[in-house]
Amino acid sequence: MSPRKAAALRDSGGEQDLRRHLISTAERLIAERGSLGLTVRAIAREAGVADGVLYNHFADKEELLAHALRAHVRTVEAGLGGLPEPGSGTVEANLRAQISYGLALHRGILPAFAGLLAHPKVLAGFAGLGEPCGDWRDRLADYLRAERDLGRLAPGARVESAAAMIVGVCHETVLSLLFQGAEALTAPPLGPEAVDDLVSAVLDGIGRTDGTGD
Fold it and tell me: In this structure, which topology does domain 3-66 adopt according to CATH?
């Protein structure tokens, strides 16, 4: 975007438009290049504004990056489609769909988070921008809770722990690939048999034997 066009945004009463433009620009840079080493100057140049303009809309770079990171997650989620509704299909098939969604989500967003591990202020700001029950982990727990209420899971099913198990596997699987380099993320993260094993572990448990305690 040229400086003239950025100025036009301001002149047309578009201070909020300019704020959104800065977030959108930072989001695009995170998606294209990752967040590691992303500077105010790089964002401003890409947005077509002077460096100091960012501070008219954000307290600091960390606040802008938190908004851009949240926008990036929403963009990735929007491209993944919907999730199964409680009571539809089978619980087994729905959990496979949830796992596929989680793997794709983590594959889309973890590279951006990897560059911000040394910036806790950005991560805290990102967390503060979340909506209640808006993250996939919350929606997964809500799905399992609804299936329990419908009687398709045991009355005492520990849905929060089950959700944590599924999210943890998705996170660890994609993170392990990320440690191998960006190219590794193009490979299928988890095979069908491994997904089936995870679904079985969630639904059936690991089957403690009688001799290992109560």
Answer: Arc Repressor Mutant, subunit A (1.10.10)
